[in-house]
Amino acid sequence: MVTYVMTEAEMQLANIIWENEPVGSGELVKIAQKRLEWKKSTTYTVLRKICGNGIFQNENAIVSSKISKEEYARRKGERYLEENYNGSLPGFVAAFLKRKRLSRREVEELARMIEEYREKEE
Known about the structure:
Blueprint: H1 8-20, E1 23-24, H2 25-36, H3 40-52, E2 56-59, E3 62-65, H4 69-85, H5 89-99, H6 104-121
Antiparallel strand pairs: 1-3, 2-3
Helix pairs in contact: 1-2, 1-3
């Protein structure tokens, strides 16, 4: 599970890395300057932090991910469920449905996902 949740700034840099990896650290600085208007020092400070937390690595001035964006999101979701709903997906869904009505299409999609899960378990 993700033990570290990135800040908004870290997520901005992470998205650039995921989109461009493997990417040279110098090129990453240029992209961050253009897209985020960050200084070189800001990019390297944020990069050092996200590498230190095990999500990315910077080896020989080449930056790449240790986990994919999808895997990070999955782990972050699991952490959220654990911290807020004692790991209960049904508990989360029940709380969610108290605030939002699902469309017919969403209900059908969820039913399809559950059925596919059941088929895999058999």
